[in-house]
Amino acid sequence: MNLPKKVTIKTAAEIAYMRHSGQLLAKVFAMLDEFIEAGVSTMQINDVVEDYIVNTLNARPASKGQYDYQYCLNTSINEEVCHGMPATDRYLNRSDIINVDITLEKNGFIADSSKMYVMQDAGREAKKLVKDTYAAMWCGINVVKPGATLGDIGYAIAKHARSEGYTVVREYCGHGIGRQMHEAPNVLHYGKQGEGMALQSGMTFTIEPMINQGKVKIKTKKDGWTVVTKDKKLSAQWEHTILVTQTGFEVLTLRDEELKAKS
What we know:
The protein is an alpha+beta fold. Helices cover about 30% and strands about 25% of the residues. It has helices spanning about 10-35, 40-55, 125-140, 150-165, 255-260; strands at about 60, 75, 80, 95-105, 110-120, 165-170, 175, 185, 205, 210, 220, 225-230, 235, 240-245, 250. The strands form five sheets. Strands 1, 2, 4 and 5 form a four-stranded antiparallel sheet that branches. A three-stranded antiparallel sheet has the order 3-12-11, with no helix packed on it. The chain has a three-stranded antiparallel sheet with strand order 6-10-13, with helices on one face. Strand 11 and strand 12 (about 225-230) form a beta hairpin. It is globular. The mean pLDDT is about 95.
């Protein structure tokens, strides 16, 4: 993809629009919390999300039509790292883990977030991978503040993931976001402390680590979209859209259950 080379610092008015988009996207996941279960197809997930975004929230699913992609989300199950395509014949099993990655545009500004859903009979190691990947994302988020660097974010994520015995996917990364789904800068999920671009108040970007249970190598399936682990071991991902504030960060896509957990 061709990213704009210059990072866009958002104005107060633009931040307000992005915050609203993020709050709407959090509502989408709250709806899905009551919908996703074993026996549901990934296309049913896609269709209920599109209907909710368009008809309930009066917004736009920003992924649909982006890079000729025809769906409004990605559904990545088990060994699928990212970009899993919804299918009418792909049903969730009782032991599956699934990442649902959704973008939403309202008033010209886009929010991007993903969440892992764990089916009731998923194994202990699968549950641990999901939990540890979530923690790795927050390790990255928690270092965000003016003057910190992109390398600080990547270092914090990778340090946690590797301490738990996992590998960090290097081919895909977070990204700036705003009027466009993908803006500068790239936000790697590995790096060295103190290296890379320094963060500034008003920057908005995603942090979305993809963490593998086994080896780091991945491949793209013949559909041209779905990325899987080469060793067929599990992979997990979480994602939030982040604003750099004057004193730290704000998670623009924070969900209600996360607010309650931190209160």
